[in-house]
Amino acid sequence: MQMKRRLQLILPAAATLFAGLAGAQVAGSGNGGGALSCTASTPLISTARVESISEIIGDDVITCSGGQPLAAGSPIPTVRITMSLGVSVTSRILVGPDISEAMLLIDEPGAAMAAPVPGYGPAAAQNACNNFALGAGPGGCVQYAFTTTDGVPIASSSPNSLTRPANVFFRAVGQNQVIFTGIPILPPVTAGISRVLRITNVRANIAGLGGGGLAGNTQVLSSVVADPFTALPIINPVQIGAFYLSGVDIAVRNADDTGGLDINGGAILGQLGQTPTAVALLKFSERFAGAFKTRVAATRDYNGQAAPNIVIQNVPGTAYNSESGLVFTGLGSFNGRHPGLADYGTRLKAIFNNIPPGVRLFVPVTNLAANGPLRGRLAAPATSTSDSYAVLVTGETDPDGNGSVSAVSPTISMNAAAPSLAEIPIVNGTATAVWEVVNTRSQGIETFSFGVWASSSFTGPAALGTGPVRMAFAPTPTTAFDIADGMQASASLPLPRFADTSVARPILTVGSSACLYSSASDFPSTIGAAGGTGTLAVTTGAGCSWWAASNATWLHITSGSNGTGPGAIGFSVDENTSSGGRNGVISVASQSYLYVAQTGTGAPIITPRGIVDPWNYTQGLAAGAWVSIYGFNLATVTQDWQPQPGAILPTSLGGITVSIDGIAAPLQHVSPTLINALVPAGVHQGQVEVIVSNSNLSSDPIGVTSSRYLPAIYSLPAPSYPRYYVTAVDPSTGQYLGNVTVDRRVARAVKPGDTIDLYAIGLGPTTPTFPTDIFFSDSYAVSSTFQVVLGPSRIAPVFAQLIGPGLYQVRITVPLDMPAGDQPIWIDLGTVESAQGVYLTVQP
Questions:
Q1: Coil, helix or strand for 261?
Q2: 642-648: which pairs have CB atoms within 8 A and are 24 or more residues apart?
Q3: How far apart are the C-alpha atoms of 274 and 1, rounded to whole Å?
Q4: What does the alpha-carbon distance between residue 692 and residue 698 come to, in Å, rounded to a whole number?
Q5: Confidence (pTM)
Q6: Longest dimension (CA), the chain
Q7: Backbone dihedral region of 138: left (phi > 0), alpha (psi from -120 to 50 degrees) or beta?
Q8: Residue 759: which residues within 8 A CB-CB, separation 6 or more?
Q9: Are 184 and 23 in contact (CB under 8 A)?
Q10: pLDDT of the residue at 192
Q11: Smaller CB count within 10 Å for the chain: N or C?
């Protein structure tokens, strides 16, 4: 197998991560009595947009059974529950400084499910504890234990009688965590009854995750733990909250939709007249169904907006395909905002830059009736239908009213059959159009199309020049908010919000040919936290007009912001007093760019339980095995190694180093929230320390257990997580074998009698001893004897060898009598096994 193919197997996966009475139980399969046992799950794993920095992820649900009964009237003990992500939590702050819209619900109040005790659990109304600091702890919304005549434990807010206790809790958001204090834990005790705790309305900065992976297979991991652990023992705390991939495809077409525009100049318009001329067609298409969302699930008329008295969207466990989550109104609004309610539906924007002086721009006030040429007036659907519908709004962050959007009225109509248009103002060469999605189709991929028209001003001909367009979700930095603030929980910033992933595409040229622009500067690509100043030289044709712009509030253009022909731009960089690094860009005519990276003042932070194997997310490490490290401020850049056969492996990427047991670890990937490292061969077994260093700052040492083995088979998660499916290789053809649904590279399923190669990590020592400091292509035989368990069979490998840094090849022959179907597979080393829940698809 070629070295390139070996890397293709390991690198994508290695970059992946990571009101009646409340207190009544929910019908379940719990065992009566015995020790309290709790299991975490994510019943509805969401598909998240990688562009989003405020995406709602799947709920974490903790289901408990068993436990011992509490004395009647006794206070119910409480725990602190912490949910952690591999990236910052961005749920809206309701009460300063850190009480957010993220909620913990007890026993599914208001859910559409049977209640074992009438008026309790799912049959109870949602009742919030208004003591955010203490929860149900002493001095707060204390709860007391009672028992029904059928022996079912229930909770009360009084020690003497049954009164309504709280079943909804709000608490603090901090960086990548939501922490709920004072959560009452009443053991369900009774057989067939379960206690259910649901954490919902958790928004995550998906855009901050970095790393690669196959589309749809890159995961957002969450972990949930309780303190004290013995009071709420959660067996499998790490869950997949979402899979993420790009949410939008962008296209810029000619006005007739028969092809693209000129690659350098867009639509070559010559000299414009005062009558608007059709220029281009802008198309926004979903990458997956549901990427475009209404504000709330559409319930009235045509729009997915909030009805006059706030749409009640509050059934736990319901998949609302909207920008809002579970909307809670029980405590009223907080500064005019209700927990879980977004400010608007998905917004799509087009930013026009470097528009030559004297040009006017017009866009339609709705999407076009057809996705083809610029024709067809579209009327608002009269009732809730399957029509795709979006309207032009007044700004990126202007909030919707109750049942209405901040729509722009048309200012011109070309003719009775053409769309109604509105002129968009141009300031310093830039104009922005923003449309909000107010109705969507429930099935299939949607495309929203918008036209662009241009004319000259009434005062004279337009100047020469070429202008691009950038298209993206909205709002984005820096017009709407600062990116550093936007990637954290906030009380004032809008929801939803997105990172700017737009790419400039030429859309129009005034003149007979495109204007080309370039720039150069000797300013360093990375500057320290103290800041500085610099200049940028602009080169273009003598008659070509241009504008310069900065995308960061801390990166200022101090002189030469626009001109005609060659020129110079002066700029300055502010001092960075924040803990993290930041990046900014100065663009010239949106064709030439100066990228400025500035370091921060903060040390790296490794998240709790954030050191895991990169394939099955088992905590710990082993010498020679790959390990993923999750955290914050880990790096100021995103960078991957560029290995060459025979070369020394890098122990520094982007100024980042990782020490494991005092030994510098080779690095494959670094980003602000994820590092992939190869554990050095010299790391001893037992408790060791991991330290991440960034420039002159280091993380606190994190203790982790180092083992002789930490086996994992290369596999990808299925939508039916927690199942993983193995992708193997046919050694005779190089074809990928496995599950064709989970891994699109797979040619077919494995057949009985096939000889296949599995790929694994963490299989331990080899003969001779393997190196971990060089990119080798030799093979090293695995020292330990082990078996591969596949379905009902135990298989001795044909051979097992280390074939590259951290990557083992295991060849097996599938027995001829292997049953068809998804067969469980794991590696049994005698003293340790690889993770369960991994399958190999076998078909005759």
A1: coil
A2: 643/7, 643/775, 643/805, 644/775, 645/3, 645/775, 645/776, 645/777, 646/774, 646/775, 646/776, 646/777, 647/774, 647/775, 648/773, 648/774, 648/775
A3: 65
A4: 6
A5: 0.68
A6: 91
A7: beta
A8: 6, 9, 10, 713, 714, 728, 729, 807, 808, 809, 810
A9: yes
A10: 79
A11: C
Predicted local confidence at residue 418, as pLDDT: 61
Is 621 within 8 Å of 627 (Cβ atoms)? Answer: yes
Q: How many whole angstroms separate alpha carbon 346 and alpha carbon 323?
A: 7
For 739, the token pair is: 């599950």
Gap between the Cα atoms of 294 and 114, Å rounded: 30
Strand bridging mode 37-41 / 780-782? unpaired
Strands 517-520 and 532-540: antiparallel
- Amino acid identity, position 626: W
DSSP state at residue 374: S
Determine how many CB atoms are found less than 10 A away from the CB of residue 150. Answer: 9
Distance CA 320, CA 813 (A): 46
**CA distance linking residue 184 with residue 179, whole number of Å:** 14
Residue 22 has a pLDDT of 31
CB atoms near residue 176 (< 10 Å): 24
What are the residue ranges in the chain where pLDDT is below 70?
A: 1-33, 210-217, 298-311, 370-386, 402-403, 413-418, 442, 479-480, 579-581, 608, 719-722
Burial class (CB in 10 A: 0-12, 13-18, 19+), 270: exposed
The secondary structure element, H or E, covering residue 6 is helix 3-14
